[in-house]
């Protein structure tokens, strides 16, 4: 039972510290202050909610490759994909 309580406390401290150090514009679904209150008042549930719904998502595809030619290729592919998405939104659905 002591291990469960220790795990819960460590989880709560880590999630609270993560919520404090996260930039305001990266927080999802609530304001940063809202998440701090949720994690503070509901330690276990709030910590789990922070991990699932509040913590910023890091997308592995956001970074460009180090090789300049490859980075340019990836950038052009992303621009083309975005252009195709916009065209599909403008076209009426059949």
From TrEMBL:
Membrane topology, record value: Multi-pass membrane protein
Keywords noted in UniProt: Cell membrane, Membrane, Transmembrane, Transmembrane helix
Residue ranges of every copy of the Cardiolipin synthase N-terminal domain listed in the record: 10-55
This protein's record includes keyword Cell membrane: yes
TM ranges: 35-53
Top-level division of the source organism's lineage: Bacteria
Places the protein is found: Cell membrane
Keyword Ribonucleoprotein appears in the UniProt entry: no
Protein name, as recorded: PLDc N-terminal domain-containing protein
């Amino acid at each position: 039972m002591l291990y469960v309580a220790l795990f819960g406390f460590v989880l709560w401290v880590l999630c609270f510290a993560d919520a404090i150090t996260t930039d305001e514009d990266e927080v999802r679904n609530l304001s940063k202050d809202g998440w701090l209150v949720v994690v503070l008042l509901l330690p276990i549930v709030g910590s789990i909610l922070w991990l699932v719904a509040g913590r910023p998502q890091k997308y592995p595809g956001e970074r460009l490759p180090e090789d300049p030619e490859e980075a340019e290729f990836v950038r052009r592919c992303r621009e083309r994909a975005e252009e195709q998405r916009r065209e599909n939104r403008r076209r009426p659905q059949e």
